[in-house]
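Protocol step 4 of 5: obtain the predicted structure for the target chain.
Materials: sequence only (see below). No template structures provided, no constraints applied. The aim of this step is simply to have a reference model before the mutagenesis design in step 5. Sequence pasted as it appears in the construct record:
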Amino acid sequence: MAIRKLRPTSPGQRHKIISTFSEITTDKPEKSLLAPIHKSGGRNNQGRMTMRYTGGGHKRRYRIIDFKRNKYGVAATVESIEYDPNRTARIALLKYEDGEKRYIIAPQGLQVGQTVKNGDDATPTIGHAMFLKDIPLGTVVHNVEMRPGQGGVIARGAGAYAQLNAREGKYAVLKMPSGETRMVLVSCMATIGSVSNAEHSLEVSGKAGRSRWLGRRPRVRGVVMNPVDHPMGGGEGRNSGGHPRSRNGVPAKGYKTRHKKKASNKYIIERRKK
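Step 4 output (structure tokens):
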């Protein structure tokens, strides 16, 4: 999983840094695990734009990912490592001993032909899914559940991981990718290892057109708008601005938006670093 810098044969190639895709073993996805995606272009069911700077992009098909890893007691073999246009991480195709196939988020270092397991009989090896009560302290994990049976929601992006620091009664103490330290029930599942494609953060698109391929339209700064369009708009010449805030007037820097009576506050031991 390396990156390569291109020679400046054109302005679009000059600063371009992309993945080598060397870890990918096939370019044909498993047909039974594909689903259609309907693009809204940022419009709601009344046709009104509710999400700006969205639209266009290449046509995609969704890969159905097994975030729950709830097929217990059946070993699976890694058949391929594949590219997924819907996420930054790579995905792995598993074939279970009973013939069923499922996609999972590929951990860093997972190889084709490797065997993985889920549940109580799994071992703390890369790609195995285990309950937090069984995972050794200090282990790096990803695809962590927040509620038992919910399916993994924490640490799913490229290169992300959480660390199991301690266990206190029915809770495990996890250090999140954000730096937050949080308690999660030990009956929740997590997958061993960190997420693949860790070099994703080093990639540079090189040209605006690549953002359009991904369905991102040009974003306009608030200070260059008119007062009717944004709280920071207006002013003569370049005299505009004011306090940094969103289009709806919510301050952008240092303003706390989390409710102080939120129920999950009691599970947070230490907030993320500012």
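Step 4 remarks: The first strand starts at residue 3 and ends at 5. The helical segments are 208-213.
Proceed to step 5.
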